[in-house]
Amino acid sequence: MPQPSLSVEPEPITVDPPHTADRPLLTQSWLDLAFLHWPADPADVAPLLPVGTRPDTLHGITYVGLVAFRMHRVGWFRLPGIPYLGSFPETNVRLYSVDTHGRRGVVFRSLDASRLIPVAIGRTVVRLPYVWSRMKIHQQGTTITYTSSRRWPGPRNAHSSLAIRVSERVEAPTELEHFLTARWGMHSTFLGRPLYLPNAHPRWPLHRAELLHCDQTLVTNAGLPAPTGAPTSVLYSPGVPVRFTRPPRAPAGIPTSRAHHPAA
Predict the structure, then answer these.
(1) How far apart are CA 187 and CA 182, in angstroms?
(2) Number of CB atoms found within 10 A of residue 48's CB
(3) What pLDDT was estimated at residue 3?
(4) CA-to-CA distance for 152 and 192, rounded, in angstroms?
(5) Which pairs with CB-CB distance under 8 Å and at least 24 residues apart come from 183-186?
């Protein structure tokens, strides 16, 4: 028989991080981000999440995110970020998760990046699904184009080509925009155990954006149904500096050995 769930209600969605990052494990900046999101059935998402997490939903709906951006100067601890190897284009397919302690986060199904050494480190040390891709970001006025073509480990036909036109600043984000962007941690699995890695950064500066072009196979290659129709949400951000901190101890009173498993 399945184990009973010990999950609690998800923590509130806050526009500022609920924790500090005084002792950073990893520093970086995320710049020139394009956020594309489509609604998804939680039943399609649940089998793809790490043990101990379930789909995070808003009014019964979860979302698939395709996020293209420039990673800038990744660095360890308080050391300066690396100028070349630590700066590169990246495109992620991400899902929205909540764990048995109520902590909201994201789950990365794929992370295409253009630097082979960071990809190798991400796959072997952090155990994240990084892949090496040919990538470019081009900006002309308010139009930004992001292209990606997968190299290793494949599949070789996986690609994305996105173009957005940036428009007005978002002065008051909607409930959905908060849900999709105010994410203060990452859920994953490390050495067979659930992992939650918190992050902190300034409040997102967001802009509305118009999707001019979208040709991509990254979502289906991540094991998800192909999106149907236009994205529900298209946003742009010039970016934020980010700090990841060490995994916290499990909240008191909730055993870690009886994590909730996604529904089969």
Answers:
(1) 15
(2) 15
(3) 41
(4) 24
(5) 183/96, 183/104, 183/105, 183/106, 184/14, 184/17, 184/18, 184/19, 184/104, 184/105, 185/103, 185/104, 185/105, 185/106, 186/105, 186/106, 186/107, 186/108, 186/244
In one-letter notation, the amino acid at residue 72 is: H
Count of Cβ atoms closer than 10 Å to residue 215 Cβ: 10
Q: Block means of pLDDT (10 residues each) for the chain, length 264 residues?
A: 59 90 84 98 97 96 98 73 76 97 96 92 88 97 98 92 98 97 94 90 97 97 95 98 81 40 32
d(Cα 100, Cα 78) in Å, to the nearest integer? 31
Rounded CA separation 95/56 (Å): 9
**Residue 127: per-residue pLDDT:** 87
d(CA 3, CA 23): 36
CA nearest to 28, candidates 65, 63, 69, 75:
75
**Which tokens belong to 9?**
């209600």
The rounded distance, in Å, linking the Cα atoms of 150 and 90 is 11
Q: Does residue 62 contact residue 46 with C-beta atoms inside 8 Å?
A: no
The DSSP code for 201 is -
d(CA 255, CA 188): 18
| Cβ count within 10 A of residue 256 | 14
Contact of 42 with 98, CB cutoff 8 Å: no
Q: Which of 59, 8, 21 is nearest to 248 (CA)?
A: 21
Q: How far apart are CA 62 and CA 39, in angstroms?
A: 6
pLDDT at 137: 98
Indicate yes or no: pTM above 0.85: yes
